[in-house]
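Consider the record:
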Amino acid sequence: MEVLMNLSCLFTSAIYAVTENETHAPKIRVDFADESLLTEQESQNLKTCAQNLIAIAKALQTYEKEHANFPEWLSEIHPKHLTNPDALICPADEDQGVPILSYNTDPNLPVSYNYDCDPEYYQQWLKHERHIYNGANPIVRCPHHANLDVDSTLISTLYLNLSFSSNVYLSDAFWHKHPINMYGSLQAAIVGYERALQLVPDDPNFFRLYPELLRLYMEAKQEKDVENIIKSFKSVMKPHGEDIMRFRDYWTLVEMLKIVGKHEEALQLLQHLEKTEKENPFIRSIFREIAMIHEEKGNAELSKAYFLKADSKLEMIGKPAPDFSSTDINGNPISLKDYRRKVVLLDFWATWCGPCIGEMPNVKKIYDTYKDMGFVVIGISLDNNASEVRDFLKECELPWRQIFDGQDGPLKKLFQIRGIPSLWLIDRQCKVISYKARGTELRKLVDRAVKAKV
C-alpha cells in the first residue's frame, strides 16, 4: 500500500481510465521524421499494409464479440469476419504469406503477419498485458518493411504494429520502447505509462516500464518526476531475491542511472556487485555492464579488459576458428576444414529454444540468397534426444547439414557455448567474423563476407 501511495504522489499528469474494450476510430501512425529514408514504393507498401491491419482489426473485434476470445490462427477470421483474404498479405512480403519454414505456421491460408494470440496464451498473459497498456500493446505485427540498406536503426528493424485498441504504429522489434508511437504523443505516452505503473508498481514482469517512463520524463523536462521515479524503483526492487531476479532489478536500476547521466553512480553499484557477487552465475553480466560504462566514459583500455572478462570468445574474432571433426546426424563424417574457401555459418541451436526457432526463417532466407555464392550453414543441435531433432528437421525440411552434439557435447565445449542461439560466422580463410550476430546484422555480415575479395 505504501508503494502505491508513493507512486500516486509521484505522477503529476492527469490519469484517466479508459477500458481496453472501448471502441474508437482507428488511428494510423506511420509517418517518419525524414520521409526521404523511404522510396515511393516503400511508402505505398506501408500505407497499404496499414489499411490491411485496420481491416484485420475490425475482423478481430467482431470475432472477439462473438466468441469472447481470439482465434488460434489469424486465418480463422476469414471469410465470416474478413471477406477479402488478400488483407492477410503484406505488399512488402516477398514470399506472399507462404512460410519459409512450416513450423508453427498458419495451416489454413497464406498469412504475412505475426500473430501470437491463441486463446490459451491470451487468457494466461496477453489479456493482462492488454489491460496494463490500455490496449496499446500489439496483437498483430508486420516485419516485412525493414530495409537493411538504410542507415537507420528503426528502418533496418522496422515493424508495423496493430494494437488491441485498433491503432497502427511503427516500432522496432521492441515495441514497448516506442511509447510515443503507441499512444500518439509525448503527453499521452506519459499518461499511458503512468497509468500502467499505478496498476503494477511492484510486478517484476513490468519493471521495464520504469526506464521507459523515465525517458519520457527526460524528454518532457519533468525534472522532479525524473528524480522521484528513480527513488520509486529503488523502493520496489528486490535486491535480496534469487540470483536472476536480483540481477534483473540491478540492471534496470543501472539502466535508469545511465539514462540520467549518472554513470559514476552506476559504476560504483556495479563495482560493489563485482566484489560481493563473485560466485554468482551472472557475474559475466556485471563485467559486461562495467565494460559498457567504461566505453561510454571513453576508458578504452578498461572497457576492452572488462569485455574480455565478460566473454573471452571476443579474442577469437579475426582469428582461425577451432577446427573439428564429427559425424552429422545421418552418420556421415564432417569437419570444418571440408569447407575451406567457403563462408560458413555454424548454428548452435535446440528444438526447445524459442529464439533459435525464431531465428531460423532469417537463416533460411540468408541461405537461399547466398548459397550459390559459396555460403553454407551447418546446424549443431544441443538437444538431449537425437530423435526429437530428426522429427523437427523432417517437419521443417532444413536444407543444410546437421550435427547432433547433445546437451554437453564436445563442440559446445570447443566453442565455449554458454547460451543459444549462437551463430558463428566464419570467412573463407576460416577466421571468425562473429559468434552472436542475428537478424539484419547477420545478413549484412554474410553479404559482406561472400562478396569480399580473397
About this structure: Residues 277 and 283 are 7 Å apart (CA to CA).
